[in-house]
Every structure is written in structure tokens, then in C-alpha cells.
Task: inverse folding
């Protein structure tokens, strides 16, 4: 009975495989139509960063100030038929609110992208610091090993001082035993027996 149910399941899978179109990995997938418009998030992010950079400059503040002053002056002193925003300047308030409502998310998006870049840079810096610390520790161990090795090696000054000590010692022994008589007499180092 279990074998029959397994056989039926295998047959169903084969039938399902025959009905579905086979997807090949060496060919691009067929694009499906979507109801929502598509956009490139990177392009949108770059554009938002450019806008955010411009909003943070003195040039933007100057242009915004000039625009507001011109708007107010025009709507106060222009003939009544050419005024488009009367004294409470409701349309100006609406425009400034609209500009602020778009500027805030664009600035936040630019900050998020900058945070992502900073996070990646921080991670790279951390890894570089770890490598530098490991290299420094390795070099410190190597220098310590060299110092320990050099402690056992005879240096030129040490050899020179040892040779000078030996020469002095030989001179003292020579005087004591009179190995080198001044008048050319020959003496033996070996005492007579």
C-alpha cells in the first residue's frame, strides 16, 4: 500500500514537471509585466544624495531666500490682476511645506546611504587594523627571537675585550715565569725533572 502511494506521488511529480516550462540557466528569464512602475534604486539614491547635498549648501539658502522675497514682493506690489497669492500667502506656505516634506525623506535617504558606506568603510578599517596588529605582533616576536639569538652571539666588542684580557693575562704569566728573557737566554717552559 505504501509503495502504491509513493508510486502515485512520483507520477504526480512527473506530470507536474511536464506541465511547467523548463527553466534554463544559460538563458535569461522572460520578464513578466508588472503593475507597479520599476526604478533603479541606485539611480534614485544617487539623485537623492545630489539633492540633499544641494539642500545643505549656502547657494540653496540664497536661492530660496531670493525666491521667497520675489514671491512676497510680487504679490504685494503687483497689480491685482497679476497677483496669484494674496497676503496670507497660503500658496507660498503650501509650496514651502511641500518642499520640506520632500526634502526630509531625501535627506534621510542620503544619510542612510552614507551610513551604509561608513559601515562598510569601518568594517574594512577594522579588518585592516586587525591585520596590522597581527603583523606588528609577528614582527615583535621575530625581533624578540633575534635579540635572544644575538644575546648568544659573540659581538666584535666582546671578542676584542676577551682578546685584550687574554693578552694581558699572557703578559702577566710571561712576567711571572719569565718566558721571554730580555738578554736572549733560552729557557724552557717545562720545569726540569
Result:
Amino acid at each position: 500500500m505504501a509503495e502504491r502511494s509513493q508510486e502515485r506521488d512520483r507520477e504526480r511529480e512527473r506530470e507536474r514537471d511536464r506541465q511547467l516550462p523548463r527553466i534554463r540557466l544559460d538563458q535569461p528569464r522572460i520578464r513578466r509585466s508588472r503593475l507597479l512602475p520599476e526604478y533603479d534604486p541606485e539611480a534614485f539614491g544617487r539623485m537623492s544624495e545630489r539633492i540633499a547635498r544641494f539642500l545643505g549648501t549656502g547657494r540653496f539658502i540664497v536661492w530660496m531666500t531670493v525666491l521667497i522675497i520675489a514671491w512676497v514682493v510680487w504679490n504685494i506690489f503687483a497689480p491685482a490682476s497679476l497677483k496669484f497669492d494674496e497676503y496670507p500667502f497660503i500658496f507660498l506656505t503650501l509650496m514651502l511645506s511641500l518642499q520640506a516634506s520632500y526634502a526630509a525623506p531625501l535627506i534621510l535617504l542620503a544619510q542612510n546611504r552614507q551610513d551604509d558606506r561608513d559601515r562598510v568603510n569601518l568594517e574594512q578599517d577594522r579588518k585592516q587594523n586587525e591585520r596590522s596588529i597581527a603583523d606588528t605582533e609577528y614582527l615583535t616576536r621575530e625581533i624578540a627571537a633575534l635579540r635572544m639569538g644575538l644575546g648568544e652571539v659573540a659581538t666584535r666588542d666582546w671578542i676584542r675585550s676577551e682578546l685584550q684580557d687574554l693578552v694581558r693575562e699572557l703578559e702577566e704569566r710571561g712576567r711571572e715565569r719569565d718566558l721571554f728573557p730580555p738578554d736572549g737566554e733560552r729557557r724552557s717552559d717545562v720545569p726540569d725533572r
Observations:
- The radius of gyration is 47 Å.
